[in-house]
Amino acid sequence: MRLVVDLNKCQGYAQCAFLAPDVFAMHGEESLIYNPHAPEEQRERLARAVAACPVQAITADGLEGLGERGTGSAQEAHDVR
User: What pLDDT score does 67 carry?
Assistant: First the structure.
């Protein structure tokens, strides 16, 4: 599975780091670091992280079949918090 984060769009809200901490992490208060080749076992967490991004800065190949935009629903993302 391949992830791309548009770091020009990313505002550092850290929802992705909260929902998928094995893939995303904040470095300091505003810099995001992430694994662009996330493991398959993180699939559901990644779908929720992509859906939860308030500025839609994350795209993921390989999340097909998990709802709109290749992700879980917005309600699923909110249920995790």
Answer: 46
Domains with residue ranges and CATH for the chain: 2-80 (3.30.70.20)
Predicted confidence (pLDDT) per residue in 20-62, tens digit? 999 999 998 879 999 999 999 999 999 999 999 999 999 998 7
Residue of 45 and 75 predicted with greater confidence: 45
Contact 36, 4 (CB under 8 A): yes
Q: What angle do CA 59, 8, 29 make, to 5 degrees?
A: 100
Measured in whole angstroms, the distance separating CA 49 from the mean position of its chain's CA atoms is: 3
Q: Is residue 20 exposed (0-12), middle (13-18) or buried (19+ Cβ within 10 Å)?
A: buried
For residues 24-51, b (16+ Cβ closer than 10 Å) or e, as one string? Answer: bebeeeeebebeeebeeebbbbbbbbbb
